[in-house]
Each structure stands twice: as structure tokens, then as C-alpha cells.
Amino acid sequence: MMRYKYFLILLSAAILLWGCKDEQAQQVSVPAASDDNPSPVTARQPGCINCHTDIVLDQSHTLPCTQCHRGNNLAADKLSAHQDFIAAPAAPENMAETCGTCHPQQVQNCTDSVHFTLKNEVNLTRKHFGAETALQSLTQIPTDNDDSAFALVDDMLRRRCLRCHVYSSGDDYPYISRGKGCAACHLQFTGGSLQGHTFLQAPGDWQCISCHYANHVGADYYGQYEHDFNWEYRTPYVTTEPFLRPYGVELHDLVPDIHQQKGLICIDCHSGTSLKTGAERLSCSTCHQWQPGDAKPPLANLEVREGTLVLTDKSGGEHTVSAMQHPAHEKYGKEVACQVCHGQWAFNDSSTHLLRSESDDYDPMERLTVQSSSWVEHVLEHNLYSDEDEIDPVMADGISGQVRPGIWYKGYTQRRWEDMIIRRDIDGIIKVFRPILDLHLSAIDEDEEVLFDNLKGNGDGLLPYTPHTTGPAGLFYLRRFSHLLPETTPASTSP
Fold first, then answer.
1. Which helix (H) or strand (E) holds 154?
2. pLDDT attached to residue 492
């Protein structure tokens, strides 16, 4: 009986070994994949996330992909899945039907705001050149292809000026490329690439500066001042290493605004609500003129604690708002704007020259290939230095994307930040001015025939603005505006 048990054990072991050997033989006998015998392909499962495996949604937007992007979430092949697909659901033409389904009031407020329509900037420029009719949005700028002077102004606005707005994804520079519509402020882009589907409840300064760069208010808050376009005025002069121009043009590093140094970001003062609804404009005195017993200023992040005004920034930092104590505030405060004394420097680019050219002669622009426009820069660099076929002198409409003949070149008589321009405004207040509309427009056709030469608008183009370069007033603040004060006559003495 014992021998019989050992026999059964040995027989079982032999069967197991034979099975393993047979399985190994079967595995070895499978031919390697080749062109004649391809490996079997696993069937793709339907659903967006089975292809887009790296997409991670934030907790507030755990929605089906098709709710925003449309398409077919039940399809397994790309063509069927992307039928009626919307690549940019947050763009202006789509956001009402996508973002607006959950955020209807926010979308409506945004659409109606001057921050979205840019109608103030558009009408200011058009009026400067003689327009009598106001437009409600940048999209209403005419696209007439006639040869009138005013058509040249409108073409300048659409194809050269209005490129940093929510109808565009920005210039092709690392710190400027971004999303359109709602995505411009509420999604994070780096180097022109979307970093994820985590929506920002409040945009950071990165989003703000992607539009407010290039010597506009916002760039000054960080002490950024563009170099001149001419290659003699830019650095580095000589380098063998590649270097980054994240905003298109190299920058002078000037002193930032004191609020930026303290850690405040743009929306700590300019809240999204105020930008969208056109709320009462803020000024320095909104906070700094506050006194115990006054009503709290209209900022949600301000509170009164034991008779002191405290601002809480977006990162949770708390800042005591200093009160105006210097006697100059009482003496001149109603007549002189704050930045006349407290602005450390100001943008002073004059004059701005713009040329629309249909000519294929690019040599005169060799010293000005850096143009603060990736489109213009690409055309110049390619046609001046490439052996490939030349690119036609055409340029896209910054609003519609339509490409039309002619390319807009830009240059300056000078670019300066010192010696702020101080003058009295039409409301009687002494303010800082800058040559915003000191524009000189010219145009030549493909035969280099001059169509317009040095077209200028009405007046000198100087407009008041608020430089975001706040700092201490200094000992000699009075010298900035004393020449604008009325002369005082000494009181006569009676005999």
C-alpha cells in the first residue's frame, strides 16, 4: 500500500511537469510579430478618457467631456468621437452655450463689460482720427477694403493693435500665448500649452500680464519696460547662447510698484466683479483716505479692525492700510492726482510710427526684426535669412483671423521712462499723461507707391493715465507740478 501511494505521488508530479513543458512549448511556438504576421491589436474602448488618459478635472468640473467639448463619448474611433467637436469651448463664440449653461450671469456680465468689448480703447482711437459714431465692441470695427484714410485706421486696429484680447490666443511668445474667452483668465497656459483642466476661481497676475504687457499698465506694476526695437538698443548685444524673450522684446528691470513688493496681485484691488460689471472705479484714496468712522470702502477683502483698515490678499496675507498723514494731502489732494507725486516712473513712448506695407523689400527692416508681434517677426526673419521661398507680405486680422494683404511694421522716435509728463486735465485735476495716441500712420502698396504719409489724428495724442509704479513721494515732489499752480499774489499791507 505504501509503495502504491509513492507511485501515485510520482505520477502526479510527472503529469504537472509535462503540462508545464507543454505550455512552454506552446509559448515558444508562437511566431514573432512581423509585417506578415502583425501582433493582435486590442480593441479600443469607447469614451474620451480611454484616449485622453492624462486629463484630470478639478472637483468643481467633474463633468462629461462632451458637456463642454461636444462630440460623441460612446464612439471608439477618433473620427466618430470628434464629430461636432468644439476644440475651444470657452472661446467667445462658444462660451454662452458651454460655460454659460452653469454660469449664465457671469458670462453675461463679462460679455457686456468694457474689459471684454474694449469699446473705450476702440472709440478713443477712432475718435482721435475723426470718427463720429461710437462702436459697442471691437468686433464692430469695419473691414472695408477701400482706400480711405479711415479704413487704414480700422485696419491698424484689427491687425496690429487688437491682438491681446479674449478673441485671440495671444502672440506666439511663451508668456503671452493663452486661451480665448473664459479660458484666457481661468485656465493656466505655460509656453503656449494648456497645463490642465483645473479652472482658476480667480486669475493670477500671470493671466493679467499675458494681455497687459508691452508698456501697458500692468507691466509697470512689475517694473517691466520694453527695450527699443532697434537691435542697437537691445541686449544681449552678442551671445552664443540662446536666450528667452518671453514677452517678445527684452525688458529693462525698473522698480516695481510698492504694492507688488508687498505681495498684492492685480485682483486684490481690481476684482473680477468690478472688471465685469463696470463698478465704481477705484483710486488710491479709496483705501488710503479712509478714516475711522467712515463707511468701509467697496472692496470685499477689506475689513475694519479696532479702527484700522486691513486688506487680506488672495494668498491670505494681511496688510494694514496706511492713512494719509502728510499735510500735502490736505493742501493739494483735491487738485493733484496721487501718482503725480507717488509715481516712480511712467511710460513715455513717443512718437509711435506704424507702416502698412505690401512691398516685398524687407531689407530696410533688418534692424527692426523684433517687433513685439510674432507674426511680423516671423515674416521678417524668414524672408531676410531663409533660403526657402519668401512668405507673402500678408497679416492676419487679430479678431477674425482673416489674412489680408499688407503687413504692419512698428517703430518709435524714442522710448523713455524718466521725466514724467505732468499737466492739468480737462476736469481741472493735475495728472500724469502719456503719448498714448501720438500715432503716425503710413502705407505703401506692392510697387512701393506711397498711399498715406504720416497720417496723424487730432491733437498731440497725450492722455491722462495712472502709472502703477507707486512709491514714496520724495523730498522734491512739489517740483513736479508747482509750475501748474496759480501764482499767488502777496497780500498788500495797509499804509
1. helix 149-156
2. 45
